[in-house]
Amino acid sequence: MSHALLEKTSLADSPLLPVVGQDLAAPLIQGGHVRYANLDYAASAPAVEDVAAHLNEVLPFYASVHRGAGFASQVSTSVYENARTIVADFVGARPDDTVIFTRNTTDSLNLLAGCVESILQARGYAEGRSNVHGELLYLDIEHHANLLPWQKLPHRSVVAASSIESTLARVETQLRAGNVLLLAVTGASNVTGEVLPIAQLAALAHQYGARIVVDAAQLAPHRRIDLAASGIDYVAFSGHKLYAPFGAGVLVGRSDWLDAGAPHLAGGGAVKEVRLESTRWTDGPARHEGGSPNVLGAATLAKAATILAELDASDWHSHEQQLREHLVAGFQNLDGVTVHSLFSDSASYAECGSIGVVNFSVTGYDAGLVAAYLSAEHGVGVRDGKFCAHPLLNRLGLPAGSLRASFGVGSRREDAQRLIDGVAALLRDGLGWDYVVDSGRWVPANDQRSYPEWAPNTPGTAGAAPCFTD
């Protein structure tokens, strides 16, 4: 075997990039500590170390932007506006596309929904009337962020088929029926990790006179995106999934709809002129960025985008795919574990496949109980619930929820193996501790472990908000 091949096959043994907290010690319920195996990247990914270092570089210059004459304000303005250019390059934006910084993907999609509503109203649409002015079309597999904003507008949904090929045919049937203004699709399922053929979907939308928006919250941290090459009209994603802290999101896309929409946040910076009884709004990104912007969030998001753009694409995908294949193979060797998927042809369909997300369930055990057990007894963090995708979980026959393991650039094979070993021990030996339901969540009974002294609660403390809808 060649040296190059050996390097490729061992990529998953180590993190692809160092991340903050990669050696975090997690306390075990039975005593002692173990390195925390973070398999919840799809919810919020840890910051890449170089992103955290960049934050420390920028922080001394943190100040107001756009209207400050001081040195720090000028530097902060430069950092903030340059972040737009970096993000635009990261997603292959067209020269006339607009980059708007938001709170997160959900905020981005709600912003676009507001613009679409303004366009419909300009065409004579009124809520409650029979719509003849344009409808929204979305799949039934969407995260709530790419479903709920469209429900307040005239809309149709497409039930995804058991194959990508058949799903594309169903989408085309709805587009051919006419009157579709915008097709809203996920780039990669946040539940199963399966990637959709977004370039083909964009071509179909355009063929029938519609535009397309892609929820890339899961896709952007794992795959290259190129708006110009793929024909995507709008893309939305979040910094907290892209290895950047501070909760910044972004919406990138064609400017005409964004300039036509009502301002997303009415406030300072979004205006040309204000009188006591009227306002003239500005155009461009500022139109939707009322109030003081999240300068540090934009700066760290842009830094993360720069780092990911510099990764060797082959190494990036191989690292992730090796981890996913290792976990799936390990689960397939365990009687009582089911790995869930949507499409029979996702692995073979061109430009699809799956990102580093594996959805599974353990026969005879509530998903929340398994997650609590893995954390308390094995130091493994996974997600459980319905992943803000209730229609899809119901479709998969999992109305009570399931489990999700997700990887990223800081993951290593040992993390996946620890999860496999933990589930195997559960199936072989059962629970090693008593667990109770507290505030809607399974927790270890009589848990004496504590958080760091600066954290307000300890594990198992009542009062945490129940997570019935995740």
From TrEMBL:
<dbReference type="InterPro" id="IPR015421">
    <property type="entry name" value="PyrdxlP-dep_Trfase_major"/>
</dbReference>
<dbReference type="InterPro" id="IPR015422">
    <property type="entry name" value="PyrdxlP-dep_Trfase_small"/>
</dbReference>
<keyword id="KW-0663">Pyridoxal phosphate</keyword>
<dbReference type="GO" id="GO:0031071">
    <property type="term" value="F:cysteine desulfurase activity"/>
</dbReference>
<dbReference type="Pfam" id="PF00266">
    <property type="entry name" value="Aminotran_5"/>
</dbReference>
<dbReference type="InterPro" id="IPR000192">
    <property type="entry name" value="Aminotrans_V_dom"/>
</dbReference>
<feature type="domain" description="Aminotransferase class V">
    <location>
        <begin position="38"/>
        <end position="419"/>
    </location>
</feature>
<dbReference type="InterPro" id="IPR015424">
    <property type="entry name" value="PyrdxlP-dep_Trfase"/>
</dbReference>
<dbReference type="InterPro" id="IPR020578">
    <property type="entry name" value="Aminotrans_V_PyrdxlP_BS"/>
</dbReference>
<comment type="similarity">
    <text>Belongs to the class-V pyridoxal-phosphate-dependent aminotransferase family. Csd subfamily.</text>
</comment>
<protein>
    <submittedName>
        <fullName>Cysteine desulfurase</fullName>
    </submittedName>
</protein>
